[in-house]
Design brief:
With 264 residues, the chain is of the alpha+beta class. The protein has ten helices and six strands. Helix 1 runs antiparallel to helix 3. The radius of gyration is 19 Å and the shape is globular.
């Protein structure tokens, strides 16, 4: 996979590390309160139950420890901005692995084990350490940003599956997830004719056409972070978001329907 041409924004590594552990902790605390009936409830993720979704959290975060425990790859292969578009290629293998993990142990055991392993290996690992992933070798710093996407997107899935659970979102995790998916849109549709605003976390320019330089942009899309994340991951469609007034779009180049979702 060739590196993305757009320069990735910088992330504060200390804040990202803290955000990953904080969001994982929020999910863990919520999952440990669930009844067997709630764990058996369906989710919007195909045939996954809440139990399988819970296991997926531990697989996604556990990948940090697994990567750090493996031999370091010889070279850097995957740019952060290339990660969102590549995830769909391994969706089948990820789903199979999730089902196997969910069947192997109780959620409490999976979360306890993952928390302990991650905290143990993460403290001494440098940001530049290369980690093998399904999609190519990444730096630890970049890989941790991708974990904010996994955690925030699936926290939303969990809240959708169990109304009233209301697992909170760590602000730094939500911000990093929003920004990475917004930047991935700019990579997918390079240009500067359309401004996409996701306050308070991100503003990006994208889509080929006349470059805007002064005053109010002629093509503007604006939405909130969770709606953007749902659009970018295919949880909600463009037309449905417009109809529900979750997105405002003005200008002839403000229709993003053909560019979404960013990742599957």
């Amino acid at each position: 996979m060739s590196p993305a041409k757009k320069r990735a924004r910088s992330y504060d590594s200390a804040k990202i590390r803290k955000a990953v552990l904080a969001q994982f902790g929020q999910v863990r605390d919520a999952v440990l309160t669930l009844t067997p009936e709630q764990l058996s409830a369906p989710t919007r993720l195909g045939d996954w139950t809440v139990r399988e979704l819970a296991a997926h959290f531990t697989m996604a975060v556990g990948a940090v420890a697994r990567g750090l425990e493996m031999p370091e790859p010889a070279q850097h292969e995957l740019a952060l901005l290339d990660w969102p578009s590549g995830t769909a290629t391994e969706s089948g293998a990820i789903a199979d692995g999730t089902r196997e993990l969910a069947a192997s142990a109780q959620p409490s055991e999976l979360f306890a084990r993952t928390t302990a392993r991650t905290e143990e290996v993460l403290g001494a690992a440098p940001d530049t350490r290369l980690i093998p992933t399904r999609f190519g070798a990444m730096t630890l710093a970049d890989f941790l940003v991708t974990r904010t996407v996994e955690l925030v997107v699936h926290t939303d899935d969990l809240n959708d599956a169990l109304p009233g659970l209301d697992v909170p979102y760590d602000r730094q995790a939500l911000a990093a997830c929003t920004r990475l998916l917004a930047d991935a849109l700019a990579v997918k549709a390079p240009g500067a004719s359309t401004e996409v605003r996701i306050p308070p976390f991100a503003v990006v320019q994208c889509v080929e056409g006349p470059r805007h330089t002064r005053g109010t942009p002629p093509n503007v899309v604006e939405t909130d972070p969770l709606t953007w994340i749902r659009l970018a991951t295919g949880r909600v469609g463009w037309r449905a978001a417009l109809d529900d007034a979750k997105v405002s779009a003005s200008g002839e180049r403000a229709d993003l329907s053909k560019l979404l979702p960013i990742m599957g």
